């Protein structure tokens, strides 16, 4: 076939999380700026080398924190609190925008940009803040320098730039629609493109993922206005990329734009391919993203080759559906995986090989035979279909998703039984995972510490954390989750039908990386997972301790999921496993149980036509998971870092007794969103942004609670951080929790005085 080949991005963090380690060393003052820059350059070079054989190497896909932040800095969209607009772009400003603090001993802490989910992925982006009269201008040459860097290393670069409509649509602006700024922004985009052409780029991919979720008039007219003015004077060719979804009825209008090529996500836009086959112009490049950039399953290259061949009359390019940053780096680092399961998989490096095989003039018969054998073994594996599990899911009826009394009556009963004060205080679950805890876990895995010694170390950390929470005056305690590496991976290790990797790291945000489990078969809970440690924690204190679980939709969303079974059925299998754990926790004496669902919003399909069925399935799975307990047992859930407006009705329909949610960076905007959906639950809007190392003051937290009290009555409000405290240090954790308890007490005093 010999088609042109490319990818839309590559994992940034490094095979061994070198970027994470370098960032954290820089933030702690152990590495200087030149050292960080050197490691970043080494990673970029290595990743371009791993793309060798492709027609282009992706550039500008690398970031020290986030691509939306990079673009805001490139165009000078820097809020005043981070320094004067004409100040030079430095790492100090960059990381203060990202996390509130640059590094130990740096400039004073400041409130960072908001952090939220990137479409329906588990990656988080920073939300640019714009003004109605925003002055855009080129203030950072990152994209240009990285393109020159690739050329100097002998690679043919294809810079990837987030498009102007996506950038504006995902930004926030007081007093108007950010898309109204398109006329101000596009000339500066054109300057950037001209600079990239001068640096030596032949093609630039302008990525507009917003079109996968929004094709309203504001977006489409903004896109047309942008492309009317976007083309630079230099002989540069532009590839419009649409990852994550289809264009549908907007296809003819989008294809009327003045681009040189169109890149479509063929894994999600299969319904668009017939129109493109019949109508797409012959004088333009058509790039098919046939290798799934978000799946870890091995591709059936023979089937994809036949699909590509049907477009042989077009100027055809072949690529990945989206950036490969959403999958782990390389499969050959997974020496401990079951060899049969391993043969079913493909990570970023292997996907490059699949792409090259797909584009080759002649298919490789040996590779084809290996792929057919792997696919056959996957279909035949006995764990893929378990009759008892399928029958249990089939037997679920409406009653399985219903608790006894209505929510309002349950809450009244729980207030009588639990006897909590106004503005009860709690945390979301995890406490700092120190270097000592990580060393303890590593020694146990290496066999240097037996299980008894390992559990003794975990118990000591739990006892200390319970005492600390008692001393601080928290009302509902947690055991700290020291036995858990990750809130989803932990359960993936416990459930059959799911496996975990050793090195399958994927970036979530900044230096935060996760290892998504792989759901490959029907799901079985062979034994209790958290009951022993939760009961042990409750025995240490007379205060209430929460049982801590991850919900079925979040496990689903934060895993790589099998593709041979509808996701709604996989969610119900997970729900039945969690339901058994919930009822066992109740039987062990836990009167408060939290089942976290931060993944609910990110699972919302980008295509509006698919959203209602998803939300119905998600709500049902959660309710099945928690409906087996008595009315006086209080069920909590938690959600964070997402736009809640689109799912407010579904959040209300969960009928959790208490919901905690991220709200501090948005200054309670999230609370307004969920209450608009008619929520009847008690609510804990976060008053401490745990994704920043700064310690919020009592006054700051109290002001947020006062905003919350303007929306909901005091008896329905809880006080908690935005999220778990795993990534925070003990010093800042203690100080922040002291302030949180003081803020709650101040609100109690104020409320009683007002009666």
From TrEMBL:
Q: Tell me if Lipid biosynthesis is a UniProt keyword of this record.
A: no
Residues annotated as domain Cobalamin-independent methionine synthase MetE C-terminal/archaeal? 423-745
Q: Which positions bind L-homocysteine?
A: 428-430, 481, 596
User: InterPro entries given for it?
Assistant: Cbl-indep_Met_Synth_N, Cobalamin-indep_Met_synthase, Met_Synth_C/arc, UROD/MetE-like_sf
> For this UniProt entry, which segments traverse the membrane?
none
Q: What is its EC number?
A: 2.1.1.14
Pathway membership: Amino-acid biosynthesis; L-methionine biosynthesis via de novo pathway; L-methionine from L-homocysteine (MetE route): step 1/1
Residue ranges annotated for the Cobalamin-independent methionine synthase MetE N-terminal domain, each copy included: 5-308
Active-site residues annotated for this sequence: 691
Recorded superkingdom: Bacteria
GO terms for MF: 5-methyltetrahydropteroyltriglutamate-homocysteine S-methyltransferase activity
Residues annotated as binding Zn(2+) are 638, 640, 662, 723
Q: Keyword Hydrolase: yes or no?
A: no
UniProt KW keywords: Amino-acid biosynthesis, Metal-binding, Methionine biosynthesis, Methyltransferase, Repeat, Transferase, Zinc
Q: Which residues bind 5-methyltetrahydropteroyltri-L-glutamate?
A: 17-20, 117, 512-513, 558, 602
Q: Which ranges form a coiled coil?
A: none
Catalysis: reaction(s):
5-methyltetrahydropteroyltri-L-glutamate + L-homocysteine = tetrahydropteroyltri-L-glutamate + L-methionine
Q: Which residues bind L-methionine?
A: 428-430, 481, 596
Q: What does this protein do?
A: Catalyzes the transfer of a methyl group from 5-methyltetrahydrofolate to homocysteine resulting in methionine formation.
PANTHER family per the UniProt record, alphabetical: 5-METHYLTETRAHYDROPTEROYLTRIGLUTAMATE--HOMOCYSTEINE METHYLTRANSFERASE
Which NCBIfam families does the record cross-reference, listed alphabetically?
A: PRK05222.1
Protein name per UniProt: 5-methyltetrahydropteroyltriglutamate--homocysteine methyltransferase
The organism named in the record is Luteolibacter arcticus
Q: What is the phylogenetic placement of the source species in the record?
A: Bacteria, Pseudomonadati, Verrucomicrobiota, Verrucomicrobiia, Verrucomicrobiales
